Amino acid sequence: MPAASAIAAAVLDRYDKLPKKGKPALRGGKRPEWTVLAGIVKNVAQGDTEELECIALSTGLKCLSKSQLPSDGGALHDSHAEVLCRRAFIKYLYSELELARAGKSKVLEPRKETGRFKCRESVTFHLYISQSACGDASMGALERSQPEDARAENESKKRKWEESNMVDVDRADGTISTGQDARPNVVLGDLIQPGLRRGRNDYAALGVLRTKPARADAEMTLSMSCSDKIAKWNVLGLCGALLSHFIEPLYLKGITVGDLYDHVALQRALCDRIEGLKDLSPGYRTTQLELQASPIPYNWSKASILQAHPDAKPVSGDASILWDANYPIDVEVITQGRKQGFAAKKGVWHEKARAVAAVSVKALPETLREIDMCSATYGECKAASTDYRRCRDILLRHKFMGWVLTPPEHERFLIATGTAQIVRGKSQTRPSSTSGT
Ligand SMILES: [Zn+2]
After folding, report:
1. Per-residue pLDDT reduced to its tens digit, 151-187
2. Quick check: 394 and 280 in contact, CB under 8 A?
3. CA of 228 to the centre of ligand 1 (A)
4. Are the CB atoms for 417 and 429 separated by under 8 Å?
5. Extents of the domains making up the chain
6. pTM
7. Where would you tag: which of 34, 229, 312, 323 has the fewest CB atoms within 10 A of its CB?
């Protein structure tokens, strides 16, 4: 296992080399912006030597609330650094898949038995985050770091908001409805359904699912916290349902965390909660992560800014950046879930992922050969990943009841184009943030 300092340095050095666009700055020339930084570092072990390289990197701490979600689905719901970083990593893997098909990838190699590709034995992946993941891993540390008056103010805002608002919850099938048929005004409060809490509500409850935190006086989000998502990756792997047609489950080896590091909470939130799952599909397993604290500060974290400027009132940065090592000069800047300088009608679907549909039927894995890739939707291709879907169902049924699922209407875009299309008489939407998750 590489040292925490080496993993953090690989990400921070790469971050420093990227252009300023999309990075935190002084807002109005006065208030410093802060953000969260996440990176995935590839380690290639050869004998006693280790070669570290940051291959995916993102910043961000914003998440769209339900009413901010565009009706066409063409925006990223969740722009937290960890989630965008995994998105950058998936983009990286699509490029590696192309290289592997040509016999040129140093990361993936073919596996004859399954017809898919697998990660080479010598390669491991490590996640760095400048601040502990939102949700279960950081509730205690966050609470301890918050002054009493700020905590009281938040509680008061929260109560006022809850008295005047309600959320749409469909408790019958365990999911929150977001479509036109959502039952309005059903329930509110800390417990929105069994096992699920809204953001930081009921902070003392440990080991529970939480939606992404939003301002105490704002509408809730429909995205699961980063703690919950990382725990899910520790069972289903980093690839997601679509890429799982091509690549065998691929897991993180460890996590290096900057601010709010709490070893016990990280162990519980990311690893212990998923232990004991049985009968997973071949290749899938529950993963124990190696957890380390980063000794190097990230200069644009809230804690670093407050330390350097105790009188400053830091404000959370609106923009996110997304970068991967296979496109080193291409830095995506994302605000309000949209890629800057990129036509909204093009959606947010990876161009690389479209290549999935472009290969000949012979080159498709068995699980996709029965599907007409010209007219297939993203949701249909995901559903055809039966091993992945089976494991997800086992995880949600046995450990994560209450998980908020992506509304199906956000996955009805054509995989070949990623753009709005009419298919089978229905108006199709562009991809959402949850594409690729
Ligand atoms: Zn988060």
Report:
1. 676 666 666 655 555 444 433 333 444 433 333 322 3
2. yes
3. 9
4. no
5. 4-137+225-427, 146-210
6. 0.86
7. 312
